[in-house]
Amino acid sequence: MPHAVLRFLPAVALAAALAGCSDEAPQSQTAPPGSSPVAQQAAVPFNDADVAFARQALAHHQQGVDLASLAETRAANEQLKALAKRIIDTHEPEIARLSGLIEAWGQPAPDDPNLEHVQRDGYISPGDMAALAGLSGKDFDRQFAARLLRQREAGVRIADAETQHGRNPDARDLAATTSRSQQQEISDLRGFQQG
């Protein structure tokens, strides 16, 4: 899957979507018998928290893949390279899953791929990404670990909000998996920083 796929929703819209998510009535449609998996998923109840999670997690995962891709050629530390590969291998299928949920629910895809004017919890600005892309070796490793750590912590918060407020079983399952894997990555990154 190309790394320049769907990325972002403006912060104000996400905040509005999250503001009333826990009290929002579930939304669903009825899928006809023998319908496609996408149509069947659309028939499962979902709420605003599920939609906000899918869109935020899609943007978060895409930036995680973009960030991890830098480590493949710039990192000196083999542990960081292995962690970056694990992130890419985990996130690419999850990006497809998140995109499928958004499509199944009939929701618009995130439409701000550049993040230029959006400040978000844990997201790395285009300027910081460009600065990181200009580094290599130990300098890259230190900056990469610090930025990825903040990005992973934000991912846990996004996932935990879904497990608390979401209604869609597939979205909640993906959120729980994301939270566990990113907590492990946080532990690995802290180990690297202390070592």
Explain what this protein looks like in three dimensions.
With 195 residues, the chain is an all-alpha fold. Helix 3 packs antiparallel against helix 6 and helix 4 packs antiparallel against helix 7. The longest helix has 29 residues. It is elongated and about 50 Å long. The protein starts with 10 loop residues before the first helix and ends with a helix. The N terminus is likely disordered.
Order of helices and strands: HHHHHHH
Strand count, sense and barrel status of the largest sheet are: none
* General shape: elongated
Count of individual beta strands = 0
| Mean pLDDT over all positions | 81
How helical, in percent, are the residues? 55-70%
Estimated structural class: mainly alpha
The portion of residues forming beta strands comes to under 5%
Regions with pLDDT < 50 over 5+ consecutive residues? 1-26, 28-33, 113-118
Number of helical segments?
Answer: 7
Distance between the termini: 34 Å
Mind telling me the C-alpha Rg? Answer: 17 Å
